[in-house]
Amino acid sequence: MVKLKEKSRLMSAEDLKRVIRRIANEIIERNKGTEKMILVGIHRRGVYLARRIQKIIEEVEGVKIPCGELDITLYRDDLTTLFEQPMVHSTRMPEDISGQNIYLIDDVLYTGRTVRAALEALVDLGRSSQVQLVVIVDRGHRELPIHADICGKKVPTSKNEVIEVKVTELDGKDEVVICERDA
Amino acid sequence: MNVMPSETGQIVWRHKNVIDLAGWSREELYFILDQARHMENVMDRPIKKVPVLRGKMCVNLFFENSTRTRASFELAEKMLSADVVNWSSAGSSTAKGETMRDTAWTLEAMGADIVVLRHRSVGAAQYLASKLKRAIVLNAGDGTHAHPTQALLDLYTAWKHLGNLSGKKIAFVGDVLHSRVARSDIIGFNTIGCKVVVSGPPTMMPKNIEALGCEYENDPKKAVQEADMVYLLRIQKERQQDGLFPSVDEYHKWWGADKNLIAYAKPDALVMHPGPLNRGVEIASDISDGHQSVILEQVRSGVAIRMALLYLCGGGK
After folding, report:
1. In this complex, how many residue pairs, one in chain A and one in chain B, have their CB atoms less than 8 Å apart?
2. What's the pLDDT tens digit per position in A127-172?
3. Which residues pair with A181 in a beta bridge?
4. Min Cα–Cα distance to chain A from B267, Å
5. pLDDT of res. B241
6. CB B265, CB B227: distance < 8 Å
7. pTM for the full model?
8. Residue B233 gets which letter from DSSP?
9. Cβ-contact B311, B80 below 8 angstroms
10. Is the Cβ pair B51, A120 closer than 8 Å?
11. pLDDT by residue (tens digit) across B79-108?
């Protein structure tokens, strides 16, 4: 295991809450309301972030938006280079995604490979009307022509650094930190 | 579904091949069942295909006749986008050692990544695995020794219905002696924490069956008493000529599963059978087609379990 050393905190729990609230509002604005909207979180943290966005939209618009979860393990292009055996998580869509506006939600956008895999997985699940990418942090270093449509914060990083978006459900607290790999 | 290994953390997968379930841990078995659950989800999609084994070559090497196991493996391989080569060989008389070694080398020269083997000789899968440098081996049945994927699909089917399998009573009735299914299933259900009881004609019961961790009960009614699941083992009609039972009718009368026998089990007990069915021999039609029967579900589980194993063993480096 590579050890990670925490360098600094990018967002506190309060900051993260505000960012998610802003993102939720941007989604509503971009979608011109809540028509045909489906939120899809990418495992694992994207799933929890999607549920929070769902809750805020419900508070603001009074509508419960369908919220799905997507596991991209079976679509990865780096399976053969991974050291550890990855594990498949559940993929669940609340309804047929055909003709719907998908808001694909993940914590960090980095190389773009996860998003590529997610797009392939989504295509296999149906022909959605459009897919918009929503991330909390965009840290640069893209290896594929992919960009975020809605982004919480852009953070320039070095490749030696790691951005960790922590959520209470998995990590016991909400925050975003930037870490460095111990040499 | 009370046990969710995925919620408790990741297990490090240590098996290169799947030869036999002996020595596998309870956590590992549950991990496979959990992964199979997600694979079954793929089977429900409009496009029943994921690209995880793209570019990998699977060879289905069947030295013994099989329809459903081979079709099940082939379907699983195709759903994971592997390239599939079916290689069947009607029982060759060549000495086993020489043939298998040459076959192994031929397969590797062809670039096989995964070999699924069924063979009438005990130990064939282990032997093939020892001769392959790179490719992995999944045992689809070797003689009377083991049929691990069948045991896992049976566990999976039972788990889906019964939830946590700890302490559940499972009864196997029939020809245990010639059954690799029985051997692998007894090991699997025993490892996962079930109480396993076997019953069948004494002529079809291996000596020292208790060594596998199960009880032997001569009377099938007592064996089935209060069971959560009754598993009927296939009777090969040819065994009658070997003098192991007097007649098919007599077998059915004493050991076959009919309403009377199943009535001894719990009211909602599951009924399983590995197929193909001998209706009116080891199982009566009203039982095999009844509401307690999950025989067709077992077939579906087979594809999901094989997808999980192909992915776990063949998906990585």
Report:
1. 55
2. 999 999 999 999 999 999 999 999 999 999 999 999 999 999 999 9
3. A4
4. 33
5. 81
6. yes
7. 0.91
8. P
9. yes
10. yes
11. 999 999 998 765 554 445 557 888 888 889
